[in-house]
Amino acid sequence: MKRRLRFLAACLLVPLALLGVFLLWPEPLPDIADLPPALAALGTRAVHGDAAAQRELGNRYYERDGVPFNLVKAHGWLQVAARHGDAKAQLELGQNYLLGNCVLGKDPAFLPWLNAHLPFGHIPDARERSRATGMRWLRTAAEHGYAPAQESLARINFRLGWNMSMPHYLAEGRKRLDKVIESHRQAAAHGSAEAERTLSLLYAGGEDLPTDPAEHLKWLKLAAEHGDQEAEYWLAGYCERGVYVPKDEAAAFVWYRRAAGQGHIEARGHLGLLLARGHGGPKDYAKVVPLLRQAADRGNALARIAMAFMCLRGYGVPQDETEASKWWRVASKMIVMPWDVGFEATRLASDDERKEMDALEARLTAEQKAEAQRRADEYLTSHPH
Hints:
The chain is mainly α. It has helices at 2-24, 40-47, 51-63, 71-83, 87-98, 100-103, 110-117, 126-143, 147-163, 167-189, 193-202, 213-225, 229-241, 249-261, 265-276, 282-297, 301-313, 321-332, 351-363, 366-382; strands spanning 335-336, 343-344.
């Protein structure tokens, strides 16, 4: 009897010991040799255990912000930050793993890394293991009280409940959502622009949440007026397209300019395109063109299209048809993939704008075309993404 009890105790203790070794074993740190001098201090903080610095470094590798795009290092640093208890990193890592089927193709070195770092070894398919890992990190962040993670779980519960006809998932989603809304209302009452923006997104609805356009727009405007750059960007888009509010490109220009000034890359692309279409004026060129060029260098398709028209029309830069052709060729090499449907980035321009660039190409000489292609190739070599 004693032997049997010792055997059972060993069967329980050995797996627990192995689990403890796994959890306590230090996570290997990604290499920081490619960091430019401007980011050396950030790299040092990350190496010495600063979770916020580790998260920022991971995001920079993913967003090409001052460093080359590297999905392995992006996920590696996010994972280190998440293991150090950074709830925002846990949420971002969970979301990235849940979207693993969308990011695997961007970096050929990522799939072997993913297979080596995913738990749930009993699940043979890497994408299914990626989703299971994503859910684990989301739950971890939610258990730490991080409201955006609780919101994500609420959305997933709603989606499972409706798509799979499982009432208990709907009930769990409603319970989580009520907690999130109450938490954000309390934060918004204390002037949190981020909470106001999150409330607006919760009321935006979609396939997995009820829709309340009036509440959505109310909270979005409050967040934008309080300086939340993401809310400014969303509101600008609504004004530009006439969604929820009357169409007003002048108002869109103002909101895009505010978001762009705070570093919002997508807002800079939209702002540049509106500027090239005649909104704003010469006083805006000096401020917007440097922001536009930064966004173009970081791979924003709209910014590259806008640069083509700024050069074509001489807005804020010397008028140069060869340089305009260069930027158009650079944009034409990009494939944008909204909803996993890829198309050439130049289709983001209007029909009239594409005809204008076709007319430009038709009147360029053979020498100008060759020079434009040479400049485009040179640019894409130094800015591959």
